[in-house]
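COMPLEX REQUEST
Ligand: 2-acetamido-2-deoxy-beta-D-glucopyranose
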Amino acid sequence: MPTCPSVPDIPILWLLLLLVVSLNAQNKSWDKPVCTEGIVSVPRGSPAVMTCNISNTFTDVTIQLSAYGKDRIIFEKKPQGNFSWHGWELQVRGGQAQLVIKDTQDNHTGIYLWQLHGGQRYYTNTVLNISEPSNEDKATDTRLFTPFPDHAKSSPLEGKPGTLVGVITVFIVGVAGFITFIYYRHRRS
Ligand SMILES: *[C@@H]1O[C@H](CO)[C@@H](O)[C@H](O)[C@H]1NC(C)=O
Ligand SMILES: *[C@@H]1O[C@H](CO)[C@@H](O)[C@H](O)[C@H]1NC(C)=O
Ligand SMILES: *[C@@H]1O[C@H](CO)[C@@H](O)[C@H](O)[C@H]1NC(C)=O
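STATUS: Structure written out below.
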């Protein structure tokens, strides 16, 4: 004769379920995730690397980027292997996951939320911040775009690259300002 399910049966069911889960967990070793911590700051245009390692093998990895008030899933439940999407590269190998951005731009900044799935599930996040390229990088860039290299060569300021770069920058800014000024005057008339 079948017994009607009564209310007290439910807690017993839960207890059994809990027991099964904890037995299961006991047999597994912990993932012990270690990830790149805090804020990663790289100059614009330089590569950025973020890693997460666990002591088990990854089942899958999901990475979400939160930036400018929007959440984007960059990689969803990626198993072992190499993946690439819009400048982001993810490598999942054994218990190691590595996210590489070769040429960091402003749209790569934000909070990277990692969902790690190995023996267990973990959530962790790393912030990527882009800094302005250092003065050295800037000097190289300015020299690349110097409009009058011959003039620069014969300049008495040669040998003082800092001053030279300053003069060239002021010159470029001046020309840009002048063009803008002309443009607006032209538009108004
Ligand atoms: C625990 O895991 C090992 C292998 O990792 C397996 O041989 C063993 O049967 C498991 N024990 C239980 C109680 O699940
Ligand atoms: C993860 O492992 C790799 C290879 O051993 C190592 O280079 C990297 O620094 C590790 N990441 C962290 C956050 O410890
Ligand atoms: C990010 O970098 C900028 C400089 O480019 C700095 O002013 C800002 O404080 C940094 N933000 C964080 C959270 O470190």
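REMARKS: Confidence is low (pLDDT under 50) at residues 142-159. The domain at 34-157 is CATH 2.60.40.10 (Immunoglobulin-like).
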